Fold:
Amino acid sequence: MSSDTIAPEVGDERRDPTAPWPILRIRGLGVSFGGFQALTDVDFDARKGEVHFLIGPNGAGKTTLVDIITGLTRPTTGSVLFDDVELVGHKEHRIVHLGVGRSFQAATVFEALSVEENLDIAASFRLPLRRLLRQRRGTRPEVAEALEVTGLAPYADRPAGALAHGQKQWLEIGMLLTQKPRLLLLDEPVAGMSPDERTRTGELVRYVARDCTVLVVEHDMDFMRRFADRVTVLHEGKVLKADATVAEVQADPVVQEVYIGRAKDDRNSVSRGAAGDEEEQA
Structure:
């Protein structure tokens, strides 16, 4: 694969949502912090092999929901079933070993180490100490695959800290892929990226979904329209619309008013503010 392309062409096909069964089932989820109800009675499913977007305004509870799935936060009520295993009550490391991987808004990489070394460390997390201490020659197959899929093979020996912003995000996704997750949670993966980087990230996400379910927390509506199979909308800690198609979300007047319309109003406010500044300067 050339360094220009992150993943093979996957086209714009969308999977049949009735074919796979849910690998993630969330029921009655609620959590409060010091009297503040962050999530209330949240239900939704994510099916095997789909790209499922979780969207909503700031403060809707998206990151809190991901924190609960990954064991960082314990809910007050409800259930999180991952492939029929209850995740509530498990420690974070146990949930990782069950096959759940997560990226963060700011890429978490070892900046002083090379790209390949970062991937190699990530690939080692399941290995027993005896195998870690054994001298090894060459590149692990899972590391070589991650370098190829992410388009980072030409930068394998480069320090991770020298990578561009988008490349660091791809490296973190590659590190997760070496661990063979069955559910991958991505928190605003295209924040701060150029249009070309967003497209390449979307291609990577859809390629990854061939082997696992991907749950994406995102604000970028164009990115959602281009790469989502299904969408769940949160607002003020509650599900506004669950397990919907992109077309259903775009056509829903309540979603338009609460989320999409609000984003438009925010952009208009910024534009009016900029225009006002120019008039004052004039």
Q: What stands out?
A: The radius of gyration is 20 Å. The chain has two domains: 22-249, 252-282. Residues 92 and 171 are 21 Å apart (CA to CA).
